[in-house]
Design goal:
alpha+beta, Glutaredoxin, four-stranded mixed sheet, Glutathione S-transferase Yfyf (Class Pi), Chain A, domain 2
Length: 219
């Protein structure tokens, strides 16, 4: 049975899952679900009515971290996206969680949501809230991630992994919101994010996303 992935293109969590599938070269069907106006029966797929959700062989899964972990086990013959070493594996899980729970509230739910989603909904952007995020809340996170990648090729272990995908997915939304890392202040992190977002798995998605966001923000 083909995989069905439910979600919306600009969600960093949906993007993370799509990139994961692309990196493992797993075919899937994308089913659009507007998280603000999901169909009533979507509760049967995800009782929390959040995105993404996935259906595979009659199994229903929700939450991007759960979906990616499942895919790694279900398709072991494809390139591994979790480190084999126990310490590196734990670090990858930690950085994925860090991206989803520490970066996301600021890069996505503050900057991106106000600059893009609020405009889509015809509501004003809360620029004071964005300013606080940029000047007070995000710099410690950027500094931490700079320390994690400095002198390394990848965030966890010796190979590209879920940690790199999760972190870069949040910075994609940060860029959609009109903000970017300062390469003078965070040179290693900025270069790493650019490198990851340039991978074919990301660039194919971002080309379409960038076009849509540009039209929206310029309209």
């Amino acid at each position: 049975m083909a995989i069905k992935l439910y979600g919306a293109a600009l969600s960093p969590f949906v993007r993370k899952t799509r990139v994961f599938l692309a990196e493992k070269d797993i075919p899937f069907e994308s089913v659009h679900v507007d998280p603000f106006n999901a169909p009533e029966d979507y509760s049967n797929i995800n009782p929390l009515r959040r995105i993404p959700a996935m259906e595979h062989d009659g199994r229903l899964l929700a939450d991007s971290a759960v979906i990616c972990a499942y895919l790694e086990r279900a398709f072991p013959e494809t390139p591994a996206l979790y480190p084999m070493d126990a310490a590196d594996y734990a670090h990858a899980l930690w950085l994925e969680k860090y991206a989803d729970y520490e970066l996301a509230p600021l890069t996505t739910f503050t900057v991106f949501r106000n600059r893009v989603i609020m405009k889509l909904m015809g509501k004003p952007s809360d620029e004071e809230r964005i300013a606080r995020a940029l000047t007070e809340k995000l710099p410690p996170h950027f500094a931490y991630l700079e320390s994690q990648i400095k002198g390394r090729e990848w965030l966890a272990g010796e190979q590209f992994s879920i940690a790199d995908i999760a972190v870069a997915s949040q910075f994609a939304n940060f860029a959609h919101g009109g903000e970017h890392l300062d390469p003078q202040q965070y040179p290693s992190l900025a270069a790493h994010v650019d490198k990851v977002l340039s991978r074919p798995s990301f660039s194919a998605l971002l080309e379409r996303e960038n076009s849509f966001v540009a039209k929206l923000r310029g309209g």
